[in-house]
Amino acid sequence: MITACHWSRRTLICSLVFIVLVGALPWGCASIDDGIDPPHISLVKITPLKSDNLESAFQLDLRLVNPNDRTFRLRGITCKLDINGSTIAAGSSNTPAELPQLGTAVLPVTVYTSMTDFMWLMFRMMSQTPGKDEELKLTYAIRGKIFLDEALPGLDRLPFETQGDLIKLRPAKGDKL
């Protein structure tokens, strides 16, 4: 009986220590990455790659702008591409890169889309043909994570999201591709 009470007291103390430590973890992680802003991302170019049966590949060139006064070593990036609100492609790159402090870098990311997703998008766009006073809208959103080569817990990835208009990305008449 005495050992049962002794064991319960030890279990209670261990449990309290565990709860305090686990409760303090978010505060510790928050203080590590305070002041770290995610990079600004913009789509620079889309290049068609290969098409095999029911899958197509594209290279997205993403410009990363680092608003922080520290350099980041990148392990890779993963992202999804939405067009007009539908996710049509996803991919990743494990090419290491460096994003200089208060600088920029362009990262190529290969994304893949199934032809069925692409065909559904085309079908939806054709069924919503704009009237004579409306413009065709072709919006995109890219969301994902940048994986950092950092040893600090809680600072190994930065989420991002960006959006824009694909029609504004195409070259004007007379511009070279």
Description of the molecule:
The protein is α+β, with helices and mostly antiparallel strands and 177 residues long. The protein has a single domain (36-128, 136-169), classed as Immunoglobulin-like (Sandwich), CATH 2.60.40.1820. The chain has three helices and eight strands. It has helices at 2-32, 115-127, 166-169; strands at 40-52, 55-65, 72-83, 86-93, 97-99, 104-114, 139-148, 157-165. Strands 1, 2, 3, 4, 5, 6, 7 and 8 form an eight-stranded antiparallel sheet that branches. A hairpin with a 2-residue loop joins strand 1 (40-52) and strand 2 (55-65). The longest helix has 31 residues, at 2-32. It is elongated. The model is unreliable at 20-32 (pLDDT under 50).
